[in-house]
Amino acid sequence: MTDRSDPLTRLRALQAGDLPVHGGRTLAYVFDSGLPEVDRLAREAVAAYAASNALDPTAFPSLLTMENDLVGFACNLVDAPEGAVGTVTSGGTESVLLAVQAARDSRPDIDRPSMVLPATAHAAFHKAAHYFGVRSVVVPVGPDFRADAAAMEQALDETTVLAVASAPSYAHGVVDPVGEIAAAAHARGIRCHVDACIGGWVLPYAARLGRAIPPWSFAVEGVTSISLDTHKYAYAPKGTSILLHRTAELRRPQFFASADWPGYTMLNSTMQSTRSGGPVAGTWAVVQHLGDEGYLRLAREVFEAVDAVVATVAAQPGISLVVAPDSTLVALETDDTCDPFTVTDEMLARGWYVQPQLSFAGRGPSIHLSVSAATLAHAEELRTTLGEAVAAARAAGPVRVDPEVVAFIDALDPAALSGDDFDGLLAASGLVGTSEDGALALPARMAEVNAMLDVASPAMREALLIAFLDRLQRPVRPHAPGREA
Ligand SMILES: Cc1ncc(COP(=O)(O)O)c(C=O)c1O
């Protein structure tokens, strides 16, 4: 029987099962200013523009005005020279995709274009490589988790259309040596993109607060484009990022027009064509409200929270920093008395979401924290909760995967597995069970699942998780008259 009660009541009930987006205790996926008026403003602006379409700036000129305001604000943040231009996109991944696509299409003379990435570059670059047929040349990072500029320089060749640096990298929160990477690219006439999706809105304020931030902006010669996400440290509602180019000429290949059909001439600066005005209006309202002073204040708070986390970790046996953070992202590792996956489960059981990161390139698993300004008010609670979570994880001891299971997984070729094989593997991993009513059941604790994924190769992890997503995304069809239930 279809539930016909108030959809908003049902929405709220559904949402109660999600991670909280407010409260400063969800330390990945969401960014919380801790200011209720910012959220109220964003909600109203999103609602007012939810049906407006940014596809056509002549039909919705107010959205063009807002986008130009946002790009102008971003230009000032990142030392963009006169003549710099930008585009509001739907998020960091779209900004990265467009930077790669524009770089590829700026060099039609290159048959098999490539890009040179530090191993710590965000996975969005691998997605871009996959979508646009650009070969990724992945260069291992140095022992400090920063890009190895000399090795990246060595990797540049006549097929390279783009060199990439992060400010900071997601997994470790450190800023790459942008100056050296950009100089090497510039010397060869190659574009250099700085992925400041995370840092773009917060590192400029960190520098103003007197923190030591290595140069990464357009002030660095040779940086040709920068991505910075408003839906992260601009504390705007989800659905916006900004891609800046040093010149209009560099942006030009990003644009797409098609008059080759009988309808309106399609004219786009982004991957999307119809684009909701909601996120643009919500972001504009938040940026107007907070302004430079507001962001400086929030940066002071978020870095105070980061410093509190660093001090907490320094005093906590069993856990340590992977590397000292340059920005607002903190990566933690455990010693051999416990494991990161049990710690993340124990944190969640106490109302805090921190994100597990699997082993990579010879380094063990870790725990990611995206610290928000709102976290500062709970810094003391975070200290006690982390202490309790680590103590519980140490009492339980490190989660182990049966060596026979490790050998079994090692022997599998993900490319050769059938749908049935994946069903069996997903059930065996505990990632997907079946509840009494036949629906998929997700595990409440993830440590064993993560530990199993951790021993699998990246290719096997990808295959398993794609199979998992495939099984999650199945339609729930309402009963239709005339169709057998
Ligand atoms: C450095 C970096 N680049 C790109 C992205 C992708 O952004 P989004 O999730 O908004 O697509 C992220 C997301 O965390 C990021 O940290």
TrEMBL record:
Keywords: Aminotransferase, Lyase, Pyridoxal phosphate, Transferase
Keyword field contains Ribosomal protein: no
Pfam family, one: Pyridoxal_deC
Modified residues (N6-(pyridoxal phosphate)lysine): K232
GO molecular-function term, one example from the UniProt record: transaminase activity
Family: Belongs to the group II decarboxylase family. Sphingosine-1-phosphate lyase subfamily.
Highest taxon of the lineage: Bacteria
Any Gene Ontology biological process: carboxylic acid metabolic process
Obligatory cofactor(s): pyridoxal 5'-phosphate
Keyword Lyase appears in the UniProt entry: yes
Entry protein name: Aspartate aminotransferase family protein
Organism (species): Nocardioides seonyuensis
